[in-house]
Amino acid sequence: MELYVALKLIWAVLLGVLLTGLGVMVGMDMGVGTLLRFVGRTDDERRAMLNAIGPHWDGNQVWFILGGGAVFAAFPTLYATSFSVFYVVMILLLFSMIVRPLAFEYRSKVPAWRWRETWDWAFLISGAIPMFVFGAAFGNVLEGVAFHFAWDGQYFQDGSFIWYVLNPFAILCGAMSVALSLHQGGAMVMLRTEDPMATRAKRIGSVAGWVAALLFAIGGVWVARMQGYAFTAPVDPGMAATPLHGPAVARQAGAWLANFHAYPEAWAFPAIGLLGMILGPVALRAGRPAIGWWLGALAWVGTIFTVGAAMFPFLMPSTTAPSESLTVWNASGSQYNLTWMLVFALIFTPAVIAYTGWAFRVMRGTVKTDAMTHDDHSY
Amino acid sequence: MRSFIKFVALAGVLALALFIAVIAGDDGPWYFAWLVGTTMIVLIAAAGAVLMETQVGPGRGDGEY
Amino acid sequence: MSVVDLSRLQFALTALYHFLFVPLTLGLSVMLASMETVYVITGKPIYKEMVLFWGKLFGINFALGVATGLTMEFEFGTNWSMYSHFVGDVFGTPLAIEGLMAFFMESTFVGLMFFGWDRLSRPAHLAVTYLVALGSNLSALWILIANGFMQDPVGAKFDPVTMRMQFTSIYDLIFSPDAQSKFVHTSIAGFVCAAMLVMGVSAYYLLGRRHREFAARSFRMAALFGVISSLAVITLGDALGRADYLLQSTKIAAIEGLWHTSKPPYEPWKIVALPNDRTQKDLFSIGIPYVLTPLITHTLTQPIPGILELEQKAKPRVAKGIAAVLALKDYATTGDEAALAAFRKNEKDMGYGLLAQRYAPGQDLAKITPAELPGIVERTARATTPNVFVEFWAFRVMMALGFAFLAVFAFGAYYSLRNRLERHPMVMRLAMWAIPLPVLASEFGWIVAENGRQPWTVFGWLPTFQSVSTHSVGYMIFSLVGFVLLYSSFIAAELYLMFRVARIGPGGPAPRPAGAGLAGAGLAGAPGLAEKIWQ
After folding, report:
1. Fewest 10 Å CB contacts: which of A39, C283, C353, C391?
2. One domain for residues C399 and C439
3. % pLDDT > 70, chain C
């Protein structure tokens, strides 16, 4: 296989890994944020929940930032086009998301009811909306987005943002993403706090996991009947990275299942996802939150890679100019760039995983209310 | 054995520092200046505090800052 | 206002706002490491108290830096799609590496730094603090490497097939002189900001004769930290100026308000002037002769090109650039090899052709008639230089402030070292009032760097007006209004907390003293928060 093609493939897989990391780690923190008002009923309960993820939320959030940076570098045209096409939605995501770091750092620094209550609402908004947008983006991309390119590589939008918000399939995907984050957040609350938060988190988290499973199944049937995209002309995977003058692409109902028909082993991804979503809540109910957490992570792996397997090699198909759809082959960075990025990824990813693991180990154990209220730095 | 591993690890850090210094000194004079300068700033500020501990305290100074 | 103007306004607002907090993070993290070093060496608990207290201010400030940084990472894609497409292959890489190598490190260890005091040994915690400092400065390094590419695009080459700059040399990118001098100048400017904050707040305590032991030590460390940092920031700024003299003559000419090429060695350095960008003359100016040439060129003989001459020199490039872009468009639509060859001939001037599109009828170069051509070349050439008035004054304000800090730190350090500080309340008052000034100077520094780069986003290759996403004005108003509202409430909350923490002081009442309800913390009569059920 040509080196450039191999690099494009590796970066497509790494993109999936990044999105999975984002779902698992950021989703967990946002799940805790969404749960905050429902699971924590007194100030100390809420503080215990916040301190459960207090030492880690910042590091976890880097998955989100790295997601942006890595797409920028590895798939520049995808970054340039998708963020602009979804402008209003992306801005809403940003508005809700940027409140979160402040909510963590500022909430408990002033002992006033109104102040803390305001920030608790901020946690709800900045937990639920970004996860919803994250899921809805997958939904919209699966259905195709209205855009085309000019000769100089500038995109033009052919649709309105209203559709991306009201699209029923995208709403389903968004709801599923929120449900997964609630499950993951619930598992974390169970791991790091004591009763009564743990019991409440168990109840909500497990139901959320099963809701996710249900939505995933419905979504699967939906995708099978949806207008997918397929090449109708031969494709050169080693092609230069430009969306213009590409091979012809057709919209076909059921095209998103083509990869599964060609490679039946790909069915493993939806199976893993569904298994994680069904068994995760079982583990939570059995009082094994650690196992539930890992099964929730597996659910994310299954979900993201199911979407990836269905769409491959498409990244963002165009409804109005299908032959200008962005794919792994035509939206990637140059060979030199992908090579160097890989070098850096190979050196630093193990390091990141190692010190993140170490940080979690140092801070292991449940949050003790007493220690929390005495510590000046605690949230 | 433990101290040997420590020795090797420190030697590794030293070699890496030298390597970075050589590269930076050659092609990145400003990076090199930053490395040296920041270390110096940190140490001088720390030294100022340590100096204060010798200037004040029981039997020394007149309780004035 | 057009979408371009609104996008520029939004980017400038969000970047300037982000940059209110970043310098403090860069500097305070290093200062915390320095203080904790003293704690580990001497074992005196007062130094731990210092790390804890200044760490609290660091945390309040850090949260806003992180929050507003999120906007920056995504704004290239949401508002500058053409730019992102054009340079993503080389510009996105340092951003991605920043996340992977630096920001992960900073953010993971910052949690341990705040929460790990009881769970880590002293040396281990010190190592964590150093890693936070290293992480935040490495973060700045990669961001400024990316910015260095915008200022001086090295390490990449334009590719007519993919219509973008393609990465060719990571070595050139990292060791770009512009990136280097910019990183050192910016990072150390952050040190100055942090030193001034610590010194000013300490002075506030000393003036009120509160927390004296704590404040005197903090003051001493900050003053020493600041005096060397200000020296460094001035000399490194001079280095950056020289780098720009060699790489971006338009920026230097604008900074110095130099309409005509300088006549060494007599050429005066203008202290004050009122440059008029429309007539391209000064309304008046006062200068010191014989200073400019050695200041900028570090020689006595080399001339510095002036604005008018630079615009004249741009004219032939505009003409060639128009030919290049026409050939490029031909090649992009037909794939004709002859068109590619024609493009290659004038490739280096492509950016000037793209810039000329702005003045072409319907922004289409093909529609220019031979009669219109000289006029369009003239207008395009005139647009190749930045706004002189803004550049001239932003630079002077920044520089004057820089020297003022040096003086404040020097007096502070001198009296602190002799333990005679409390006899000079004027110095302490100065330090206190100077707290916001280094941040202000940093903002002006950003304006000098980025206004001076105009009209380009990628210097000489991609004009700003073309880099922008194809949004409607309505979208832009929506996002702009949202940012203004959100960011205003953020800064209100931030300042409220900063002042509150500073007023309470080190070792002050914890947010809720154990078992004491909230009576002591200003909520007299209110029921204890812990017992209050909210749902």
Report:
1. C283
2. yes
3. 95
Q: Given C331, C352, C383, which residue is the final one in a domain?
A: C383
Cα of A204 to nearest chain C Cα, Å: 17
How many CB atoms within 10 Å of residue A233? Answer: 10
pLDDT value at residue C511: 45
pLDDT tens-digit map of C453-512: 989 999 989 999 888 888 888 888 899 999 999 999 998 888 888 888 888 888 755 444
Which residues of chain B does C187 touch, with a Cβ-Cβ cutoff of 8 Å? 34, 38
Answer whether residue C142 is part of any domain.
no
Residues of chain B in contact with residue C41, where contact means CB-CB under 8 angstroms, are 46, 50
In a domain, C394, yes or no: yes
A37 chain-C contacts, CB cut-off 8 A: 534-535
Domain of residue B18: give its range: 2-54
Say if C127 falls within a structural domain. Answer: no
Would you call the peptide bond into C527 cis, given omega within 30 degrees of 0 as the criterion? no
pLDDT tops 60 at residue C521: no
What's residue A337's pLDDT?
Answer: 92
Q: With beta carbons under 8 A apart, name residues in chain B contacting C137.
A: 38
How many angstroms separate the CA atoms of C454 and C448, rounded?
A: 10
Q: Which of C70, C135, C74, C141 has the alpha carbon at shortest distance from C104?
A: C135
pLDDT for the residue B57: 66
Q: Please name the member of C167, C521, C535 whose beta carbon is closest to the beta carbon of A111.
A: C521
pLDDT tens digit sequence for C277-301: 888 888 888 888 888 888 888 888 8
The C-alpha angle C382, C387, C389, rounded to 5 degrees, equals: 130
Contact C70 A151 (CB under 8 A): no
The pLDDT of residue C2: 86
**Residue at token pair 């060719």:** C168
Q: Does the beta-carbon distance from C112 to A356 stay under 8 Å?
A: no
| Residue B15 belongs to some domain of the structure | yes
Residues of C in Cβ contact (< 8 Å) with B37:
184, 188, 228, 232
B contacts of C206 (beta carbons < 8 Å): 65
Q: Which of these, A103, A149, A144, lies nearest to A126 by C-alpha position?
A: A103
> Within this chain, do residues C194 and C317 fall inside the same structural domain, yes or no?
no
Mapping DSSP to helix (H, G, I), strand (E, B) and coil, where does residue C263 land? coil
By Cβ distance, the residue of A111, A334, A344 closest to C101 is A344
The pLDDT score that the predictor gives to residue B61 is 55
Residue A274 contacts residue A302 (beta carbons within 8 Å): yes
Q: How many domains does chain C have?
A: 2
The CA–CA distances, whole Å, from B29 to B37, C143, C240, C294 equal: 12, 19, 13, 21
**For chain A, which residues score pLDDT lower than 50?**
none
Size of interface B-C (CB pairs under 8 A): 101
Same domain as C318, residue C308:
no
CB C512 within 8 A of CB A369: no
**Interval C36-91: pLDDT, tens:** 999 998 888 889 989 999 998 898 888 888 889 889 889 998 999 999 999 989 99
Asked if the model's pLDDT at residue C272 lies above 70, the reply is: yes
The shortest CB-CB distance from A42 to any of C95, C104, C534 is to C534
According to the model, what pLDDT value does residue A302 have? 93
Give the distance from residue A220's alpha carbon to the nearest chain C alpha carbon, in angstroms. 30
- Residue of chain B nearest C219, judged by CA positions: B49
Residue B63 lies inside a defined structural domain of this protein: no
Distance from CA of C533 to the nearest CA of A (A): 5
Residues of B in contact with C232 (CB under 8 A): 37, 41
Boundary-marking domain end, from C383, C415, C436: C383
Domain span holding position C447:
177-312+387-458
Residues C374 and C289 in one domain: no
Interface check for B55 against chain C (CB to CB < 8 A): the answer is: yes
- End-to-end, the C-alpha distance of chain B in Å comes to 49
Asked whether residue C336 falls in the same domain as residue C285, the answer is no
C419 and C377 within one domain? no
Same domain, C290 and C318: no
Mean pLDDT in consecutive groups of 10 residues from the start of chain B, 65 residues = 86 85 77 87 89 73 66
Same domain, yes or no, for C265 and C361? no
Do A and C make contact via 3 or more CB pairs under 8 A? The reply is yes
What pLDDT sits at residue C427?
87
* B46: nearest CB among C38, C180, C188: C38
A204 and A182 in contact (C-beta within 8 Å)?
yes
